Amino acid sequence: MGIYLDHAATTPLKPRVAEAMHRALTDAETMANPSSSHLPGRNARAALDRLRQRVADRLLCQAEEVVFNSGGSEGDTHALVGTAQHFERPIHLAVSAIEHEAALEAAGLLAHRGNRVSTIPVTGDGVVPVEAVETLLRDDRPDLVSVMAVNNEVGTVQPVREIAALCRQSDVVFHSDAVRAVGHGLESIVTDPNITLLNCTAHKFGGPRGVGALVQRRLRLPQLICGGGQEQGSRAGTENLASIAGLASALELASAEEAAGIEELRRWLESELVSQVPSCEIHGKRATRATHITSVSFKPLSGYKLQAALDSLGIAVGTGSACHDDGGVSISPVLAAMGIEEYLARGTLRLSLGWSTTREELEQFLEHFIELLDQSDDSLNCPI
Asked: How confident is the model at residue 331 (pLDDT cuts 50, 70, 90)?
């Protein structure tokens, strides 16, 4: 596969997770529909209950609070749109300026439907100020606040525990998109009981794509997917036992030791980039950041041109910009919200590590990257 440094987009499946999924796919005890009332169905239901309890044990919640779904985008949408449906009236929703587009699109949908949406600003390091939330709750009390646990582009860890405590004191529903936090050594955040709604997805920490969970504390959201009464009536559809087994297994395999090892590699990579590339600028460097994500710019280079050049060498990385159909490139809304100068933002790469990343791979990446910079002319620069 070459060198893969885009684990924030998706991670390779861990071998032991694949084994757990294979057992669930081939075991006669789990072949039936968990909603069926016959013996095979009851066996499948018992297996599903065991998996739900395993996930709940890792997230420190009650089993009945875990709703399985298709992943992060559904979790964000269900949390925001489902809360609005729960209130059965127009609501006031406050979202941070750096939320994942799934949450921002859901907020936009709610605004289109007549709900009020406020945006919580962030600092230049990409962190939501607790004081801003305090002011919001005091002066303009919303019904729902949504702040992600870890930003998906720059990796900044948000003060979720403080915000969750403030929201609970004010009897305000608090949602946190924990897609880049669960499975990455941030248990004290993702298990906080003050968080009303928290969602994760398995493929960000060595599990399969297409499965996630939404924890619902003190609130039962209505269905967005209509049908039967699966998932305690909160999400219709026959449960995907094999993928849920993969989610549970990946959660149990994630460890603080693994996260610490990844962070050590990330810090080494950043140190080498800063020392070898004078134009290197790490975004959010003064903030607490997740173990596995670094957002770095190389002014005056173009992030997309760098990505394409690295791709041709068999190296996969992410970027911090958004490409339009007309061929133009705009800067990431996250970097814009942080106040990053446009020319610098357009030269951004997102380098993200995972459980399978090795020091040797990072050394090879650096060797190829420095060689690429040394050989390049103005062709890799951002257009002025």
From this structure: confident
